[in-house]
Amino acid sequence: MGGPAPIAAPNIGRPVAAVWLCACLLVWFIFLPEPASGAAPRGEPKRVLLLHSFGRDFRPWSEFARTIREELERQSPWPLDLQEQTLLTARFDNPVPEAPFVDYLRSLYQGAAPDIVISFGAPAARFVERFRAELFPETPMVLTAVEQRLVNRAGLTDNDTVISVYNDFSAFFGSILHVLPDTQTIAVVIGASPLEKFWLDEAKREAKPFEGRVAFVWYADLSFHEILQRAATLPPHTVLFWGLMSVDAAGVAHEGDLALRSLHAVANAPIFSFQEAFFGQYTVGGPMHSIGASSEKTVNAAIRILGGEKPANIKIEPIGFAPPRYDWRELQHWGISESNLPAGSEILFREPTFWQRYQWQVALIAAVILVQAALISGLLHERHRRRLAEVEARQRLAELARVNRYSAAGELATSLAHELNQSLGSILTNTETAELMLKSPSPDLGEIQEILADIRRDDQRASEVIRRLRNMLKRVPIEVSQINLNETVGEAVGIVSALAEGRAVTLKYVPASMPLRVKGDTVQLQQVVLNLVMNAIDAVSEVQTEKREVIVATGIADEQAEILVGDSGPGIANDHLKDVFEPFFTTKTQGMGMGLAIARTIVEAHHGQITVENRSSGGALFRIRLPLVG
Ligand code: ADP
Question: What is the pLDDT of residue 256?
Fold first, then answer.
């Protein structure tokens, strides 16, 4: 029937799927994590027996053991069953107590021998060699952290791999004298366990070639307590050599780093040791055994052996000292010059300098200071420019104000001349009268005295008019001083009083009952008052009423000094109220429109305000407020 033929999907899809599968496998292989780098260990667990010589926490072996344990766990492709045993007998001279320990191990591992035994240090190596037949006849062994002189070559089998080190005392003593050429005595700290006694002899042998150059003091017969006492009072040019201190002459075992820590705390001389396990806290440094190098070789051998390789095939040369390394803090403490260090030395634990430690903070602070300095200098420059501009503006204002005063003086000239004329006229009249009286046979001296007093008064009035005018027109720089506003305003009113009189305008001045102390320039403030009063006189002159009045008053309002200038004129049209202080605003045919603009500038320069309003009773009222002093 006519249905569509089944598409040969498998025929097309199969090659595609195969390619896809191959690609996936390729990707999987490429990204397959190495077993050593974190893949979960698989298969049967491998039993690893770690055998310590003195205890789990005896340096330097404990440091080797710790690193090896960690690396084994990290690198092993199999799950590990790590078992640690300690051969405490190495601490004692008497090997008798080994038997029960052997029995214990035998019963423990009977029928379930470990897959590998790793021994740390010579005593453990000797032990496993000695009891191998009884305990682990078939088990491969890695003997590590053992000095090559202590390897019992006769006891080795094909089932053993040795990772040994080489203690080169002579090279190390040489390195001490290189670093501290003035050294006169080397005090040697080596304990009293059998192993330590062996090393004492070796060290003595290797010290022989140096004996002409430096004296050696051996602390092997002392308890550690006595060693501490000696170390605290060593003569100058002495150094301490820290060999081993597992058990002291008093039979006390010293675990961990407690002994060296105590020695370091009291010693008055630098401590040297070729064991890296003590470096970084207590010793100066020098050529040392590298824990990393020995551990790496041990772990590598152990994994190869666990993987099926024959131990005899893994041959490793004794490992010598690594290139010299020194602790910067100790060099500083003992005043050891870096130039004395052997070529190729590495200096560790260098304390960062202040700059290194606080590099970014210092940089940040410096940047902030720089930005701040730039800002400050910018602001200072700006301020300087503003000052200049202000000075210029003030000078212009002073110029303008002076011009304004000159024009006011022009307006006042007639009335002032009239006032002067009046005084001079009455002086003349009085003088003539007095002359006539003096010609009479019996002149009334009392009356002549009164006439003379009048002459004097008129003269003073005329002088006062001239003084005021001169003051008003003098070209003086702005002079800010503390003034009593009542007097300043009164004087201005006095200047203009003749004009008011000439125009038949009543000019009243009502000063405040208390003095009004303000800071300001007298001439400028008087000019403001003058302008306001003259405008007021102009305004009242416009109206044809009986009441042609201008009142000037001073007082205190809102804790400020206040000057009021009111008039009975027509007032200011509401539309113009906000314009009257603008420059060139005038409603007068001969007006310039600068008087109030100058007045406002002067008042504002005195930190005050000037306002205007229309009085309800008619006329304008100008109000000036200035800050009071004290
Ligand atoms: P000018 O006196 O040359 O016109 P001002 O700046 O002193 O310049 O005054 C500006 C304007 O303000 C005056 O033309 C006037 O219209 C108005 N004015 C000032 N004082 C008074 C006043 N007391 N009464 C009414 N109008 C005033």
Answer: 72
